[in-house]
# Entry
Amino acid sequence: MREVVRRTASVVDGLLRSGGVVANLATLALYVCVFIWAKAGVMENLANIGPLPALNPASAVALGHDPAIVAKLLALAKIWGFGIVALGSAWMALLGGRWAFHALLALLQRLKTI
# Structure
């Protein structure tokens, strides 16, 4: 009876660990996809703005009279938002990759003891 309980506990433990690994790998893939999406948003809005004007009083006055100033400011705000999302997602993907590396090392270590 004890052996049955021990084996059942081992199977449940293995299932829970496997579920955790799958969930962590799915989260890693999600962060990579979000990073790619956010990076594309940054690049698209940078292309919409065009070249940035020089920082001098004359260009500031000209920029103030530009009819597309609201669209350009909105694009700058989008760049800021997409940039923050891209940086956060890249950081989380980096941590997820580090976790996957250590999980692989732990799995190899377990396989050595079998």
Notes: Residues 81 and 90 are 14 Å apart (CA to CA). The helical segments are 2-49, 57-64, 69-113.
